[in-house]
Amino acid sequence: MWGAFLIILFALSERSLPTVVICLTALLAFAMCYMLATFMGFLLYSEFCLFLPRDSKCDFVIVHGAGLLHGTDVSPLLAARLNRGMAVYRQSGEGTKIIVSGGQGRDEKVTEASAMKQYLLMKEVPEKDILFEDRSKTTWENIKYSKEIIEGLKKKSRVIFVTNDYHVFRTGFYAHKQHLKARGVGCRTALYYWPGAFIREYIAIISREKTVPVILFVLWLIASIVSLMPFRT
Questions:
Q1: CA nearest 101: which of 150, 152, 166, 55?
Q2: In the 8-state DSSP scheme, what is residue 231?
Q3: Which CATH code fits 54-190?
Q4: Separation CA 36–CA 41 (nearest Å)
Q5: Domain ranges of the chain
Q6: pTM score, whole prediction
Q7: Least enclosed by CB within 10 Å: which of 77, 92, 104, 229?
């Protein structure tokens, strides 16, 4: 990465190069700076969310589903989410409900929500405090259908959603888009799983939100056209 930056800096400082080459090098520099800045911001946010929120008082805790082992069993990744969700639920106190959110995947024999509910029951969470959302297939639908349950029970409520650290940013963004006021709590992801999951999540965020890259590209294009135009003296 640093070697590429040095090559770009050298190219930009070399005035004998054709203007087109300098413009393309500048575009590459913009792209690399943007990716590095957003990647580091995403990384720091993912770590920061492990320590939030300090005030865990809420009315509803949404725990997002994940794939099941052998089509029926809670995986270690999903267990981490459920354990963190239970911690928030118990700190919040009387009256708090846990929403287990997750439908049935193609390779699953039961819904994720049903497996999650059984896990919570084995951990002695009262059944009356567990709410069931088993229609969702995506993160967007996790928020959408959980929001419907919440609004059907209480118009104004405090909501905390629980998922893995790398997944909190996108989930919070979707909650904002759907006008659900909710705070995110992250749980630690196993080291062997984290790099691939983090990179996939970063790509998903960047590919979905194209506004900033498009604006930067348009600005670069305008600047390049201006620099290529002959000026009369």
A1: 150
A2: -
A3: 3.40.50.620
A4: 8
A5: 2-47+208-228, 54-190
A6: 0.73
A7: 229
